[in-house]
Amino acid sequence: MNPASISVSTTARCRVPPATQLRAGSSPRFVKRAARVHQRATAFEVAAIDTGNQHADDVRSDLSVQVGRRAMLTGLTLAAQALTTSSYTWTAKAEAETGRALTATEISALEKAFAKEVPKAKAPAVLRVAFHDAGTFRLASNDGGLNGSVGFELKRPESFGLARGLRPLEKIQKSLEGTPAAGLSLSDLIAYGGAYSVRITGGPAIQVPVGRVDVAVEDPKGRMPSESLNPVELKEQFAAMGFTTRELVAISGAHTIGGKGFGGGLDFDNAYYTTLLDKPWLKGANKEELEMNQMIGLPSDKLLPEDEECLMWIRMYAKDQALFFRDFSSAYLKMIDMGATYA
Q1: Which domains are assigned to the chain?
Q2: Which residues are catalytic?
C-alpha cells in the first residue's frame, strides 16, 4: 500500500467497558451515558496496517476510542482510564460534539480554492497555523485549542511570521462565498488547511470534520511550547494538552516540511526521524560545514533522541514511514478537535 494513500477517519474500534463494569456509587446519569458511549463505540471499526514489528500488538490495542473531554468533565472518567491514550485514538461523541463530514460538493469547492491560494511552497506556513491555533489547549481548564483565535494572537513573539500562513486561509474563506462550502468557519479552514498541506507535500490524506465555531477573543498567553524545551519539559507540556509521548513524537514529524533542514523541505516523509538519528549537527568536515549543520532543527528537536521513550518512537518512524503516517494522522485529528466547539 502506498503510504500517501492512507486515509484516516474519526472512527475506530474501541474497548469501552459496559455499564455493568462501572464502579460502585456511579450516578444514574453516569451509568446511562457510559452505556450509550459503549453501545455506539463498539460499532466503529477501522482497518489496521500490520506493522510487522514487535509493537504490532500494541498498535492493534491502540486502535481505541477516547471519550471526549466534555464527557470526561461530566463524569465519564472511567472510559479515559480504561482506554489506551495513544496515536491510534479517536473520539466517540455525538455529531454535535465532533462535527460533520464534508460533502462532495464542499470538498470540490475547497480543493479549488486551496489549489489557487496554497501552492506547495506555502504548505509549511499553513500547517504551522493549525499547530499554533491548537497549541493553546489545556485539558485541566478545557480551554484554548483550535478555535480560530490565532487571528487575534499575531503580535505574540511565538506568532512571528504566522500571518504568511493565515492570510491565504482568510482569502479562501472570502472566496468560498456563494459556493457549497460557504459558511465554513476560519477554524474549519485552519484544520482543513493543515491536512491539505500535509497531503500536497506527499503525506497521508486526513479526513477533517467541520462545523467548528470561531471565538472572538484571543486564547490565554504563554502556552505554546518553547523551542528550547528538553524532552522532559516537552512531554510535560504536551501531556497538559492531552498528548502521550507517542503522539508527541508523531506530531513533531511535521517539522519534516519547512525550513528546519529536515529532508527536502517540501516533502512530507519520515526524514525528520532519520535525521534525528543521524545527528548531522554534530558532524562537519570543517568549521563552516559544522556551523551549517548546527542550523538544522530546533534545540528541542535535537534533544528529543536523548529521551529513551522518545527515541523508541523515533527509531520506529525512521524505519516505518507507513506507521509514522498513521500515527501522525490520528494525532493530527486529535489536535484539531482539542478545544473545538461545534455548531
Answers
A1: 3-15+33-98 (no CATH), 104-223 (1.10.520.10), 231-329 (1.10.420.10)
A2: 132
